Amino acid sequence: MAKRHLLSTADLTVDDANLILDTAQELASVAGRAIKKLPTLRGRTVVNLFFEDSTRTRISFETAAKRLSADVINFSAKGSSVSKGESLKDTALTLEAMGADAVVVRHWASGGAHRLANAGWIRSSVVNAGDGTHEHPTQALLDAFTLRQRLGSVAGRHVAIVGDVLHSRVARSNVHLLATLGAEVTLVAPPTLLPLGVEHWPCASSYELDPILPKCDAVMMLRVQRERMNQAFFPTEREYSRRYGLQAARMALLPQHAVVMHPGPMNRGLEISAEVADSVRSTVTEQVANGVSVRMAVLYLLLGGAESAIGNDEEGSAR
Amino acid sequence: MTTQSGARSAGLDPAAARAVLDGPAVDRALTRIAHEILERTGGAEDAVLLGIPTRGAVLGRRLGELISRFEGHAVPVGSLDVTMYRDDLRLKPARPLRRTEIPTGGVDGRLVILVDDVLFSGRTVRAALDALGDLGRPRAIQLAVLVDRGHRQLPIRADYVGKNLPTSMREAVEVHLSETDGRDCVLLGIKAGA
């Protein structure tokens, strides 16, 4: 039974992950063509259901769906019936009645996508586009894709994920996916920004950045999420920037081939300096371009056939 | 890489399969097709060979080598995956994509020769024509196949045929090539379980 949803990178096997990345590799060429469109999802409807602000993820999913010829409905909580107090369930039932084939959901609550997928409200596939501080699987997939493109492989590579791990769904998704793909991951953050139980994650962790950098093939800088910073997690932004921010001097500690990644949007001058963000080592704009290819691959594999191609030869987590 | 290629390799009953073309016969058929292409196109000056993966792409490369050996100039060779354009996508789980490689220079204004191993319903070729339409505007499109087994479901025919092979619907044709399957041959048999 195939998985119909993409909720967490922890659900993906090595084969699933590689299938998505290989498919994205082939689909990347569509971006370079005169006609940037494939007829594959003609007549299918993809709903972008966004309960949280987002530009790049929503636009990326919208572009991906449109390049596959799907019809796209954008639904953001602001200015919709959700702001009048409609529940997730009623919103879901509305979408079901409209005949959505896939729902791309971003929700402020961790587990929001899982609830939508498994509550029995809708029959469509659910793609998690970020749920609270839990997971953001397509971001991790596009990061892995970018790593593969820049470094040739992911297995055996050493990746440092630096910054606000506590609030970062990008970090969680990346830790699981990179571990599945055989990379070695080190989380670097002040103790206040490392989640409880991080010692049980499939990765190492460190409070210091400088000793980690010389053995890294890639450094992933996380955004300091001011909107989730309701406590004093670090004394001042300047101190954080000095200890955990990536500036040119610190970038010089990296091996020659190493790349600098950031999921965006960047706080220039805080976790990453403008000089580093604009350097040739920075993959920020590639990550955005790769996001479209990876999301096309996910939508194609979930919706393109009679049943999902992800997780075909095992018992799926969802019915 | 997997060696599956759609329904054709769904499994021939090995006991009942017989080789209708052996290795040398496959070679002779490809050599003749290469000569026919040169003859028909007057030297294949503006031709581009696009093979349909998996085995069509292998045959396309072989034809390209033969043509450059006979004529002394190289012909651009590429591959064209048609999975995203198939009309039977929704009948099966989503399939992994194969390589699409369009030679530099593209297909605009050129003679594109599509290459596939078996011509059957014609639906793969229909998908390839649609895919080509999104890539550019060739001057003309021709089709070369190693085996034409009949039973067309669309008004499509091949310009170059290695072997016309009358078959029944119960039968299956499998093309084996040394690059993908270890040896060259064309097998005709009964579908396993049919």
From TrEMBL, chain A:
Catalyzes the condensation of carbamoyl phosphate and aspartate to form carbamoyl aspartate and inorganic phosphate, the committed step in the de novo pyrimidine nucleotide biosynthesis pathway. Carbamoyl phosphate binds at R56, T57, R106, H136, Q139, G264, P265. The keyword Transferase applies. GO terms for molecular function: amino acid binding; aspartate carbamoyltransferase activity. Heterododecamer (2C3:3R2) of six catalytic PyrB chains organized as two trimers (C3), and six regulatory PyrI chains organized as three dimers (R2). Its EC number is 2.1.3.2. InterPro entries: Asp/Orn_carbamoyltranf_P-bd, Asp/Orn_carbamoylTrfase, Asp/Orn_carbamoylTrfase_sf, Asp_carbamoyltransf, Asp_carbamoyltransf_Asp/Orn-bd. Keywords: Pyrimidine biosynthesis, Transferase. It comes from the Bacteria. L-aspartate binds at K84, R169, R223. This is Aspartate carbamoyltransferase. It catalyses: carbamoyl phosphate + L-aspartate = N-carbamoyl-L-aspartate + phosphate + H(+). Belongs to the aspartate/ornithine carbamoyltransferase superfamily. ATCase family. GO terms for biological process: 'de novo' pyrimidine nucleobase biosynthetic process; 'de novo' UMP biosynthetic process; amino acid metabolic process. It comes from Actinocrinis puniceicyclus. Residues 4-149 form the Aspartate/ornithine carbamoyltransferase carbamoyl-P binding domain. Residues 156-302 form the Aspartate/ornithine carbamoyltransferase Asp/Orn-binding domain. Pathway: Pyrimidine metabolism; UMP biosynthesis via de novo pathway; (S)-dihydroorotate from bicarbonate: step 2/3. It is an enzyme of class 2 (transferase). One of its GO terms (cellular component) is cytosol. Gene3D superfamilies: Aspartate/ornithine carbamoyltransferase.
TrEMBL record, chain B:
It holds the Pfam family Pribosyltran. One of its GO terms (biological process) is regulation of DNA-templated transcription. GO terms for molecular function: uracil phosphoribosyltransferase activity. CDD domains: PRTases_typeI. Residues 19-166 form the Phosphoribosyltransferase domain. A motif (PRPP-binding) lies at residues 112-124. Its EC number is 2.4.2.9. Keywords: Glycosyltransferase, Transcription, Transcription regulation, Transferase. InterPro entries: PRTase-like (IPR029057), PRTase_dom (IPR000836), PyrR (IPR023050), PyrR_bifunctional (IPR050137). It catalyses: UMP + diphosphate = 5-phospho-alpha-D-ribose 1-diphosphate + uracil. Signal peptide: none annotated. Also displays a weak uracil phosphoribosyltransferase activity which is not physiologically significant. Regulates the transcription of the pyrimidine nucleotide (pyr) operon in response to exogenous pyrimidines. Belongs to the purine/pyrimidine phosphoribosyltransferase family. PyrR subfamily. This is Bifunctional protein PyrR. It comes from Actinocrinis puniceicyclus. The lineage of its organism: Bacteria, Bacillati, Actinomycetota, Actinomycetes, Catenulisporales. The gene is pyrR.
